[in-house]
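Below: protein 1.
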Amino acid sequence: MARVCLGRHVYGFAAIAFGIITLVWHDFNNWQQIRALGDVPHREILVYIAAVLEIFGGLAIQWPRTARAGAIALGFIYLIFALLWVPHIVAEPRVFDRWGNFFEQFSLVSGALIVYAWLGRKDSERSATTARIGYLFFGICVVSFTIEQVVYLSGTASFVPKWIPLGQMFWAVLTTIAFALAAIALLSGRSALLASRLLTAMLIGFGLLVWLPAPFANSHKMINWAGNAQNLAITGAAWIVADFLSQKRSAAVVI
């Protein structure tokens, strides 16, 4: 990969943030990624192992020589986090929050798959297939993001800062439509690169307007820190998709 792709750096930085927050914050019951662990024996030990893996993966993915190892570590831990929600989905299949949590974590698995594959051999059919699978998985996750905002539209609106013109519900509906259009573009392949870039920009906007100010308002509330890390991680995954599509287009032009 000749060009610098910022997506994996953002994605890795988010993983480091996840790990650090987990290590310094001891209220594990409110930690979204690990809440699904429930009351399993030696839960704290498992949590610390996960934090170390996130920090290792986040650091390793920053450099080309170790990026694939970092992608493996992060893909593995995020897959575990996603699978931990499956029993909750089985127990309450009609509660979309359970599905939403699964797909939020799985979107991060998608980013790891693309990084791992795209930094492999360019002439490898397996690498191309793996990257394509990661890309399609991410598109499906964006469908989930859309449904989640539709189902919890009032809750989504409550996150919009009140000082932004046109009202909270307006922006909740607009961003829901934006998610839906992005999902259609990604899964259909029509204007997918533009959609991935606009989706990344929207997620950056969420981070700057919604999550970044949150710790300043209440630094003792864990969700304010966790939300920043989660949004940044999903932003990184979307950025990885945009980088992937951009390089595919550049390669096609050269050929």
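Below: protein 2.
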Amino acid sequence: MNPEFPVYIVSKGRADSRITSRALEAINMPYYIVVEEQEYKQYASVIDKDKIIVLDKQYQRDYDTFDDLGDTKSKGPGAARNFCWEHSINNGYGWHWVMDDNIWVFYRWQDNLKVTVLDGTIFKCMEDFCLRYKNIAMAGPQYDMFVIRKIPRPPYVLNTRIYSCNLIRNDMPYRWRGRYNEDTDLSLRMLKDGWCTVLFNAFQQKKQNTQKIKGGNTKEFYEHEGTLPKSQMQVAMHPDVSKLVWRFGRVHHQVDYRPFKKNKLIRKEGIEIPEGVNNYGMELVKI
């Protein structure tokens, strides 16, 4: 199976590596990749042109960076993500997927194993789960590094941040904003308004660590300024639930998601969930 809703990769300066693009092609999953006009030829030399969409520059001009630095440095990926949101709406979809461009592989966590998936079925599983409920605004797979084997975890966690691979409901009144931390900000604005988010432990993404690969925001942001401005912006955006901390040899932000435990899932009328396990045709095989 493949997802019902369109999949977008937002990419900049990574035509050579194109990590997420390779990952999706390996599982034969359809996608679009959104690039800036000046990089179109580079991407078109290695990716099917039908998959490439050139970012409308108006989205960059109109983007709310949540600071007063204007065009003095990169505005980050939020503008391209907003473009994807509108593109999916204009094509009649109720939801869309948007992904970072540095995801290596996707897993299903089954019988205490992290199993590499060979098609897009896990994305259809996540979509179907979300469509059962009235009040899910955003969902996505967990980072594989946060699910440790032999430590029991629930199949999903409610009401926390969704990073890097986001399934977003299109009729939400929000849009991406902020030069940094746009994932955390969008998650928090949804949660503060009473919506739910779903982070799936059962389905995972293996993502390249921040600042470890050329392109994206590595050169524009982190190579010169580190993580302090990023963390300071998060605290400025949401001071009621955010604070600065020192971890792993650098500044980070820490967000308290406990106030949102009160947000409960509301199932749609007429939805009946059959008993037992539906594996959607997936089988565990040795390769």
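The first strand starts at residue 7 and ends at 10.
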